[in-house]
């Protein structure tokens, strides 16, 4: 991807490699976040604009890096808009807003304490329009990511230098 112009459109494989997620996760996110709208050409081939890539980077950062739920991220997109999440994808700091996927920390709480995350309700058995294999593949990817988050949470904190 280094040889392309920053304004160039990206294929799903380029975006997946850049975000270090499988392609099916990007397709799954398209079903959960209607703000992701890549151009689709012949044969259903997807082309992502620079703003689409920034939005996907923001989604990845909030889901994987910050531990937001899909429902919490949907609320952020609804209340603060896709430009906010795009800015996060471009490296802007994340402002913790109560009710937007995290609960506020009580005054005087230790800065190292983990914020409480929004509970995700059970999902419908098979979302409308998706086949079982697509759903199971996406669930497996989410479970793998849950495992990674748990493993990272259980690692001892790095000692200060």
Query: Helical element count?
Result: 6
What is the distance, rounded to the nearest whole angstrom, between the alpha carbons of the first and last residues? 35 Å
Largest sheet report: 3 strands, antiparallel
Strand order of the largest sheet: 1-3-2
Beta strands, count: 3
Q: How do the helices and strands follow one another from N- to C-terminus?
A: EHHEEHHHH
User: What would you call the shape?
Assistant: globular
**What Rg do the Cα atoms give?**
17 Å
> What ranges have pLDDT less than 50 throughout 5 or more consecutive residues?
96-116
Approximately what portion of the residues adopt beta-strand conformation? under 5%
Class inferred from helices and paired strands: mainly alpha
Mean pLDDT: 77
Residue share in helices? 40-55%
Describe the structure.
The structure is a single chain. The protein has 161 residues and is mainly α. The chain has six helices and three strands; from the N terminus they run βααββαααα. The chain has helices spanning 12-19, 23-32, 50-65, 70-80, 82-89, 132-154; strands spanning 10-11, 39-40, 46-48. The protein has a three-stranded antiparallel beta sheet. α3 crosses α5. The model is unreliable at 96-116 (pLDDT under 50).
Features:
mainly alpha, single chain, three-stranded antiparallel sheet, 161 residues
Quick structural summary:
This protein is mostly helical.
């Amino acid at each position: 991807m280094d040889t392309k112009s920053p304004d160039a459109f990206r294929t799903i494989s380029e975006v997946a490699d850049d975000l270090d997620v499988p392609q099916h996760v990007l397709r799954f996110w398209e079903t959960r976040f209607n703000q992701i709208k890549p151009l689709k050409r012949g044969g259903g081939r997807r082309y992502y604009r620079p703003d689409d890539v920034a939005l996907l980077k923001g989604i990845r950062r909030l889901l994987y890096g910050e531990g937001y739920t899909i429902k919490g991220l949907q609320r952020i997109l609804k209340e603060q808009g896709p430009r906010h999440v795009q800015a996060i994808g471009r490296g802007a700091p994340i402002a913790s807003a109560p009710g937007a996927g995290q609960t506020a920390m009580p005054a005087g709480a230790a800065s190292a304490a983990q914020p409480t995350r929004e509970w995700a309700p059970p999902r419908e058995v098979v979302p409308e329009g998706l086949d079982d294999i697509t759903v199971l593949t996406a669930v497996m990817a989410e479970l793998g990511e849950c495992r990674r988050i748990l493993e990272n949470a259980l690692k001892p904190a790095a000692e200060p230098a």
